[in-house]
Amino acid sequence: MSDASTDLMPYTRESRALLPDALRLGPVRLAVADLDRAVEFYGGVLGLQVAQRGREGEYQVAHLGTGAGQEDVVVLQEEPGARPAGKHLAHTGLYHVALNYPSRLELARTARRMAEAHLRIGGSDHKTHEAIYLSDPDGNGLELAWDAPREAWPATLAELVEGVSDPLDVRGLLALTGEQPPVPHAEPGLRVGHVHLHVGSMPQARTFYVDLLGFEIQIDLGNGALVSAGRYHHHLGFNTWRGEGAAPRPADVAGLREWRIYLPAADDVEAARQRLESGGVRVVPAGPDAFTTADPWGIPLRVAVDPGAR
How sure is the predictor about 162, in pLDDT bands with cuts at 50, 70 and 90? Predict the structure, then answer.
């Protein structure tokens, strides 16, 4: 599936993804053991605000975004007794979800909230984006990120790989806030930038996410890959860092309960559905111009027309 010559091609070349360039990600739904604790973390540290809270079916749920009239970014689903997710558990599922802030200053304000909460701040400068890594109180992995302007991205994929481990300039980032008073809430424009998953087989993951769903591989590391549409650095990452053949996440462990892909038109959703069904993947209608499915490890995905395009 990988092509060694890809690393020598200009990163600005035209996308070869089957999915449309205008693809974007919708909210993620995460299971947590204690909803109050999780809401306090996502609000106080990440700057999200509760848009709606109440019972949905058997669960207490909180929808969080950046204020009235804005889309959800994260949906928290309370599952009392859920065991924490974590690196010590050798199963498939969420590695991390990336929340992209609309400006470097917004990322800096979040870093400052982390510092005031006495949380360790560490991360990487990936050249395409700067990232801070942490986990929520239930062990769900998070990446807090800001995308650099595309014209500043590396010219080739090889340069992108070489720059993947540069340390984040935390001091410089925090300096952006200067003497400003703390800002409690994130500004509109915060969104899910990418989702990164632990899977049990790279060939199976490539078949599902690339050949059938329609992403394009940007970087293939052998035991991990970054894929996207529209030549974005990645909308999705997947890896076998917990071992080939890792089992699906146990039902009683916190983690990712659903992630969403938004496509610009009903025809795009239908084309994705047909590709998946042609590969023997089960697809379930989920209202007009939407369906749900799951990868080979039961990780749920919803594909729908972008609500902003209706």
Answer: low
Q: What letter would DSSP give residue 234?
A: -
Report the greatest alpha carbon distance in the chain. Answer: 58
Cβ pair 228, 236 in contact under 8 A? yes
Q: What is the pLDDT of residue 155?
A: 76
At residue 128, what is the residue type? T
The string of DSSP letters for 122-160 reads -EEE-SSEEEEEEE-TT--EEEEEEEPPGGGS-SBHHHH
What is the rounded average pLDDT for all residues in the chain?
92
Q: Are the C-beta atoms of residues 283 and 276 closer than 8 Å to each other?
A: yes
Kindly report, residue by residue over 89-106, the tens digit of the pLDDT.
789 999 999 999 999 999
The band of 235, judged by pLDDT with boundaries at 50, 70 and 90, is very high
* Residue whose pair of structure tokens reads 């990780």 in the numeric block: 299
Residue 12's pLDDT is 62
Task: Evaluate the CA torsion angle 225, 263, 194, 75 in order and state its sign.
Answer: negative
Q: Is 132 exposed, middle or buried (CB count within 10 Å of its CB: 0-12, 13-18, 19+)? A: buried
- Which amino acid does the sequence have at 58? E
In the sheet that holds 191-198, the strands lie side by side as 166-167, 123-125, 129-135, 141-147, 93-100, 191-198, 236-239, 224-228, 216-220
Is the model's pTM score more than 0.85?
yes
List the structure tokens of 69: 């009239």
d(CA 273, CA 150): 31
